[in-house]
C-alpha cells in the first residue's frame, strides 16, 4: 500500500471522530430563549417571569433555558410583539398594546368595562378568554399562554382631582391605545401617549402632569417621587398576558411545548398570588413616602366614558363587549 492509499482511511476516520466530538459537545446544550418585559426587577411581573423560567428549565430537564430581560431591555411593548412575530423575541409580557395588533383587545381596555377583579377573572379564564387567544394566534402569529392579573389602574397627579371636572387641562400619560386616549379625553383630561420608560422624567420636567397605572406598577417605577396624589379611580381592572412567538413554539419538541404550557399555568398562579400582597405593601410605601390617597365617587367618571365605550364597542367588537357586560347580571 502506498503512503497516499493508507492516508485516505486515516483521514476518513479522523473526520468521523471529529464529527462525533462536535455532536457530543452540542448535545445537552439548552435552547436559549428570551423573555422581555417593561417592568423593573422589583415588580411582580419580573418575579413571575423568573418563576416561569425556573419551571421551564425544570420541566424540560434542562433542554430549554429562558433568559429574562426586564426594564424594556428588549424594547417597549410594541417592539416585543413585533419581535415575537419575526422570532427575534421568544416570550413577552404585554398588556393593552396588543390592541394595536389585534383590534378586539381594545374592548378590554375600555374604562369601567369590568365591575371588579372577579368579573375580569370570569372572562379571561373562561371559554371567551381562550377563544380570544386562539383568534390572536391566527391573526398575529403570537401565541397567548396565560393571562396574569394586575391590580386596578389608579390615577396619580400633581393636582388634586376629585371629579372629572378637575381633570380639565391635566396632561396625562396614557399607553398608545385608542380606548385609553379617548376615555381620558371624555373624562376631561389631555392624554399624551408615551412609552412607560419616559414617564418618570416627563413628570419630573413637567411635560406631563399625571399618569395612570396599577399601584404596584407605579411604586416599583418610583413614580410617586414625582407625584403628589394617588386618586382611587379603579377605572380599569386589567391583565398582562404571557405571550410566545409561534415561530419559537413550532421549533420546540412536543414534550417541550407541553412543558412550556404547564410552566405558564403554574407561573400564572404564582404571580396572581403575590400581586395582591405586593400591591398592599406598595400602597403603604407610597403613603409613607408622602403621597396623599384620594377616595372619589367613581360614578361621574364612569358616566363620562359611556358614549366612548359604546362607540368603540361598535368599532372593535360589539359581541365581545356585550358578552362581558352580560357577565354582570
Automatic annotation (TrEMBL):
Alphabetic keyword roster: Coiled coil, Signal, Transport
PROSITE patterns for the chain: PROKAR_LIPOPROTEIN
Signal sequence range: 1-25
InterPro entries: DctP_fam, TRAP_DctP, TRAP_DctP_sf
CDD domains: PBP2_TRAP_Siap_TeaA_like
GO biological process terms, semicolon-separated: transmembrane transport
Chief place where the protein resides: other
Subcellular location: Cell envelope
Coiled coil spans: 253-280
Record GO cellular component, one term: outer membrane-bounded periplasmic space
Keyword Signal included in the entry's annotation: yes
Family: Belongs to the bacterial solute-binding protein 7 family.
Protein name as catalogued: C4-dicarboxylate ABC transporter substrate-binding protein
Species assigned in the record: Shouchella clausii
Amino acid at each position: 500500500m502506498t503512503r497516499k492509499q493508507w492516508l485516505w482511511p486515516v483521514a476518513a476516520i479522523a473526520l468521523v471522530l471529529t464529527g462525533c466530538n462536535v455532536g457530543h459537545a452540542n448535545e445537552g446544550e439548552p435552547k436559549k430563549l428570551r423573555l422581555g418585559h417593561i417592568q423593573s426587577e422589583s415588580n411582580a411581573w419580573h418575579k413571575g417571569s423568573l418563576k416561569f423560567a425556573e419551571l421551564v428549565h425544570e420541566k424540560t430537564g434542562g433542554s430549554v433555558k429562558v433568559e429574562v430581560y426586564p426594564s424594556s431591555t428588549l424594547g417597549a411593548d410594541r417592539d416585543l410583539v413585533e419581535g415575537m412575530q419575526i422570532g427575534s423575541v421568544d416570550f413577552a409580557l404585554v398588556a393593552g398594546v396588543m390592541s394595536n395588533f389585534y383590534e378586539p383587545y381594545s374592548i378590554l381596555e375600555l374604562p369601567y368595562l369590568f365591575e371588579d377583579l372577579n368579573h375580569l377573572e370570569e372572562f379571561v379564564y373562561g371559554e371567551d378568554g381562550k377563544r380570544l387567544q386562539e383568534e390572536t394566534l391566527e391573526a398575529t402569529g403570537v401565541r397567548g399562554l396565560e393571562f396574569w392579573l394586575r391590580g386596578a389602574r389608579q390615577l396619580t397627579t400633581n393636582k388634586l382631582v376629585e371629579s372629572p371636572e378637575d381633570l380639565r387641562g391635566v396632561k396625562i400619560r396614557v399607553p398608545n391605545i385608542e380606548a385609553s386616549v379617548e376615555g381620558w379625553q371624555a373624562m376631561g383630561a389631555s392624554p399624551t401617549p408615551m412609552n412607560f420608560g419616559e414617564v418618570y422624567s416627563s413628570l419630573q420636567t413637567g411635560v406631563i402632569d399625571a399618569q395612570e397605572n396599577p399601584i404596584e406598577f407605579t411604586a416599583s417605577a418610583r413614580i410617586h417621587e414625582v407625584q403628589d396624589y394617588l386618586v382611587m379611580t379603579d377605572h380599569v381592572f386589567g391583565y398582562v398576558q404571557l405571550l410566545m412567538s409561534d415561530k419559537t413554539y413550532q421549533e420546540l419538541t412536543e414534550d417541550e411545548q407541553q412543558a412550556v404550557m404547564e410552566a405558564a399555568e403554574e407561573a400564572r398562579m404564582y404571580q396572581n398570588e403575590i400581586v395582591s400582597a405586593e400591591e398592599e405593601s406598595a400602597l403603604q410605601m407610597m403613603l409613607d413616602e408622602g403621597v396623599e390617597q384620594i377616595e372619589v365617587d367613581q360614578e361621574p367618571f364612569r358616566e363620562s366614558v359611556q358614549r366612548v365605550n359604546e362607540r368603540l364597542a361598535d368599532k372593535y367588537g360589539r359581541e365581545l363587549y356585550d358578552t362581558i357586560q352580560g357577565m354582570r347580571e
